Amino acid sequence: MNRTILLIEDKPALTDTLKCLLELHEFNVLTASNGEEGVANARRHHPHLVISDIFMPVINGYELLEIFKTDNELRNIPVLMLTAKTGIEEINLAMKKGAAGYVTKPFLFRNLHATILKLIL
Fold this sequence. Notes:
45% helix
């Protein structure tokens, strides 16, 4: 497929698992362990999609969305939120701040994969 995904997640075990699964589906995967590192990687590599947690150190997912929304270099990169926060208020806030999609943990990979394909194909 040759599409690049930037995965921003602060839990190494989840990062490793998702990276392997995405690579099995022929995505190139970049990783970052916090939002600040994620923004820097997005500017450096211009991925086709960003998958980000909400609650993480340095820059959280909401702040990340604000940065992407206001940055000319990043604003056209879709950001998919992948989080344990299931409340409708959280979902609405993320979507209002510019999230292209919202998937809650725990999740089935096939559902995440389907959402990814909708956003980048």
